[in-house]
Each structure stands twice: as structure tokens, then as C-alpha cells.
Amino acid sequence: MKNRQTKRIQIVFGFSGGLQEDLERYQGVMAVAQAEGWHVLGVHEQFERSLTRLVEAGAVHGVIGEFMSEAWLGTLPARVPLVHVGRSPFSEDGAAVTFDAHAMGRVAAGHFRDMGYGNVSVYELPGQPLPKALYAGLGEGGKTDVARVRGRLELEGMLHKMGTRPSAVLCPSDFAARQVILAAEAAGVAVPGTLGVLGIGDRFLDRIAVERGISSIPVPYQDLGRRAAELLRELMRGKTPRQMQIAPGAVIARETTLRDSHPRALVVRVEREFRQRLAEPPDLEEMARRVGMSRRAFERTFRDQSGATPYQYLLHMRLAESQRLLRDMDWPVSRVGEQVGYAEPARFSAFFKRMTGQSPSRWRETSPAFPLS
Q1: I want to staple 235 with a disulfide (CB 3.0 to 4.6 A). Which of 27, 81, 129, 149 is the partner?
Q2: In 161-200, which ranges are E strands?
Q3: Looking at domain 265-366, which of 1.20.120.1460, 1.10.10.60, 1.10.579.10, 3.40.50.300 is its CATH number?
């Protein structure tokens, strides 16, 4: 009995090669692993081969990673609890945490509509087709005829045939968005004037590489890792495998889709500033100076475009973010308040009750659970 109590649970986490995504997923896994007392072994190279050796040695109690195929898993020398993480599950029966591709399509369609783009295309990297659900989500935004552009040659052909009507392209990653931006520049197509480019993942390194603000749909990779570890814990306790989908965040609008001629361009710019600095937003004088306006003209234009003052808009953004955190995270109420700009719990509670009629704790008790499965 003593040996069983002191036996160390070892979990293998497979790194897939995306620096930012892997680190955030790993942080999410570690949040659960530390609470459970697991030891996490990160495997960076030759994941499949290394995993086979570890399983043969009986040194693995659970695995989280992006697997090649169900057929490959069948070659493992022993059965081990496994959770697949990636863009889509490869098995209907296995445990998996994946992106909600349908929701991603809807988010992209809404952004393109708000920015005034007409034709919409999806850029696919060779050999990496995107889920049909993503196209279905784009179609719900009124874009029933979404073009599929496969690879660099088709992309260059599309760019050379473009007219003057503003068009947009959704890319599977910010890395792919970077390729589209560079190809557009080489073809003399203005981004975002003629072509809006939207990526997925919000990768800082890709923005540095092209020296442009890439508009992107953020993916909560840390939450994905945490949910994967929670699923693994269920499997290790004998529960039936299940699958979860992680919803994307709202589009972070930057230079590559933000057309100055759009009637809500200033609102989108301000919303981006607020979202990045929700707890300590820049003052109005600073924001007005950035867009080349006086403070009075800035406030008047913002109100004309949004129907609210910048301060009112900030309060509603703080409310929406605090509700998301209360619903989706198990943080203490005080931490949620700090995240949205209220360091004192009493001030946060007063703000939240004024906006909703309920205290944060009561709202959390009555709100619907985050729809993951």
C-alpha cells in the first residue's frame, strides 16, 4: 500500500512546434498537474517515437498531445489514457479538446461584415484542409459563396485578378496571414484598402516578422491545455472519453483589416486599445492624439459611431469581460475584479451590481455553464 501511495504519476505532454501555442497550452496543463501532484514530461522532438519508448517502459500514466492518427495510436504497446489536442478530433470515440471551427467562422464573418468587405476567401495551406464547420460558420454571416484558395499559386492568381471592390481573406494562422500579406505586397494589392487579411491565433512573432499589426482571432490555448488536463484526469479515474470544443475570442482588429473609411473605424480602434489595457486604459487625450484629433472631436466622433461615450463603452467592455471570467474561470471574484480594473473587491461588487442588478457571486451561480461539449 505504501508503494502505491508514493508512486509518482507521470504525464507526457507533446510539444507540436508552435512556440507561443505550446507554452500557453503547457501552462494550462500545469495548472491542473500541480493541483493533482503529477509530474509532466515535455517531449519536444520525435513525439511519437519517444512516446512509444516510454509506454514500453511502463513510465507513462497519461498523455496529452496532437496525435497523427487513430491507426498510429493502435500501434502503441499498451493502453494509456490519451487526450488529443488540435484543430479537430481524428476519432469520434477518443477524448479530445479542439477549436470550435463553426464559431470561428461566425466570428470572422461578423468582423468582415463590420469592416465592409464584400467577397470573402479562405486561404488553405497545401495538405492542410480546414474543417467544413469553419465554412459553415462563415456562411451564417451571409457569405454563402466563400472561395477556397489552396496554396501559393492559387493565392497569387487570386491577387492578380482582384478588382477594386474590398475583399477579405481568412487564414488558418497568423503565419499563413503573414504569407498572404507578403504576397499582396508583391502583387501591388493594398492591405487593408483592397484586401483585408485576418489570421487565427494572435501570434506576436508573426506580427514582428511582417512589421504589421495582423488582425487575428485569438485562441485561448491556456484554457485548451487546462481542459485537456481535466479530461485526462477523468480518463484516469475510469470515466468515458468525451470531446470538448473551445470557443474563440472576439477579433482583435489591427492594421490588416481596419479600413479608415469604415463608419465604425474609430470605435474599432478604441475597442482594441481598451481590450489590450482593460484594467488601465489610456486616457482620452492620448487616444485622440494617436488618431490625429482634438479630444472634443474624438469624443463627438466616437459617440456618433457607437451611440455611447468612450467611458460608457469601457464600462460595458469591463462588464462583458468580467462576466466571461466569472462564467468560464474558477477564479476568486476579487481576481476577476482586478483583471478588469477594480483592485478593491467592494468597488468591483458595486460596479457589477449597478450594471446587472446582481452581485458577482450571485450572477456566477445563476449564469449558464460554458458550453464546451
Answers
A1: 81
A2: 167-170, 195-200
A3: 1.10.10.60
Q: Which three cell numbers stand for residue 324?
A: 466571461
Burial 338-361 (b: 16+ CB within 10 A, else e): bbbbbeebeebbebbeebeeeebe
Apex 173 CA angle, 170 and 176, nearest 5 = 80
Question: Could you report the per-residue pLDDT of 67-88, keeping only the tens digit for each?
Answer: 877 777 888 888 899 999 988 8
What is the architecture of the domain spanning 2-98+221-246? Answer: 3-Layer(aba) Sandwich (3.40)
* Per-residue CA distances from 143 to 2, 108, 109, 118 (Å): 63, 11, 7, 9
Stretch 141-168: mean pLDDT: 83
- Superfamily of domain 101-217 in the CATH hierarchy: Response regulator (3.40.50.2300)
